[in-house]
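Risk register update: the risk that structure generation would not scale has been downgraded. Supporting records follow, first protein first.
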Amino acid sequence: MNSSAQFLNASEAAGRLGVSAKALRLYEQRGLIVPIRSAAGWRTYGPDEMRRAGEIAALRALGFSLAQVARVLDGDSRGLEPALAAHQAVLEDRLRQLVGTIETIGNLRNDLARGKAPTAEELARLTAPDCERAVAFDLPYPWGGERFELGRVRPLNYIIGPLGSGKTRLAQRLAETLPKAVFLGLDRSANGSAVARARMDADPTLRSRVERTLAWLAEDGATVSDALIALIAGLESDGPAIVVVDMIEQGLDQLTQEATIAHLRRRRPGGRPVFMLTRSRAILDLTAIGTDEAIIFCPANHSPPTYVAPYPGTPGYEAVATCLASPAVRARTEGVIAWRPQVA
């Protein structure tokens, strides 16, 4: 048997584990795993490294921060109780959703026995939660009233496009159209943070949620800043069913962006969907998009927005990829906007 078959390169190891190669590099940067180096200097992962990486990936799936993962691997049980409690809450949410679906099916069967056939919409709801129902609306300027079919609202939705493509106007129209939606603008500086702190002072429950999330993000390498506090306070606030965020990377460094998107991916099922305008590769990592995420692309020629699948070669993929930049580049161009003609 060829012993080299037991060793995988980074891409193969990531595929076997169901994580991105970027995640493996992050585990290595935090000292959680040390891959073997080949004679040519390439990272390779043998059985022991794969076992270790599998444990890390499993703990991350439970919602553990990287700091918590490190403690668990070292045999330190601190922080296990809240992490396990959060995972229990996730499972209980899934159970409630499953029970509700079973009850709905029972009602449909009872109706069917009485001669009333279910509608296509009722059957579709068995696999599409309420938050995923299709929504259609007229597009704003610069599209001139064209109709747009939003489709199913995923837990995480990215809106991307070049400067002047109208993506901000699309996001604002989404916030106006979707029920109980709120738009988080770019005022996430000291002033925005002060407003957020005032709301937290008036709402101890909100303060608790924000502080818990900030602690989790900090353990994952995030820098707590005015921008992050304002963002998290907006995401954690009660009331809105959907949150639309203008340029979510605004004021956040790379590690903070990576920690933020990882946190959003680990929210409880049934949590409010989030629409994010972004042009950062740290936020929209095309190699890490999950099945519960969607990309909406606004073309430069003002053709109607389209959904883009995150696979090379699919329509619109290259256009999306060219809109993305590293956090360092995004920081240098922060605040740059396209010239807009005055509308009479």
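Supporting record for the second protein:
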Amino acid sequence: MKRSKRLIFLAHCILNVNSKVQGIAEYKSAIKELICFLIDHDVAMIQLPCPETEILGLNRWGHVKDQFEYPFFQTQCRSLLEPIVGQVRMYHECGYRIEGVIGIDGSPSCGVHKTCRCPSWHGDFSNTKKTWTKIKQMEWENEPGIFIENFRSLLDDAGIHIPFFAVDEINGVETLDSLFDQLSLSLKK
């Protein structure tokens, strides 16, 4: 058997940038450098679902975390994640090593260390001046996005503790070396 028995869970858009909000993809199809790094280290990849695409579709505007902090979105995230937690448990119980989860910092859903917030990010777009005022009020906060928050909670409830890593959505290419360093250290354990 040639299996490495090592795997990692990836935010959906790492393998499919087509799911991202129009205009923010830094890559043509996938984050090839990260995928090649994981393959070179014999780590299999499991793609997480994208809650934003599932719930809001492809023709959506950019959102902030504040917009996703409502019961239906949270319930849908948990519904999408429950089978994933079952997979994590199954692999773990069968002797596989779960290397972690890689999210997308900056995302209101899949941010691990950083997400975007703006309490006034709502309302009508007809008044351009008010819209630009709202855009200027958007802030980066050092906290996870809604999907990752729910994933961690479900894993904690199941007694499963795995590391979370992130690609920086805003500075993706420039920050991959730092991510590779973190992953290399983790993979050596």
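The chain has a mean pLDDT of 89. On this basis the risk owner (M.S.) recommends closing the item.
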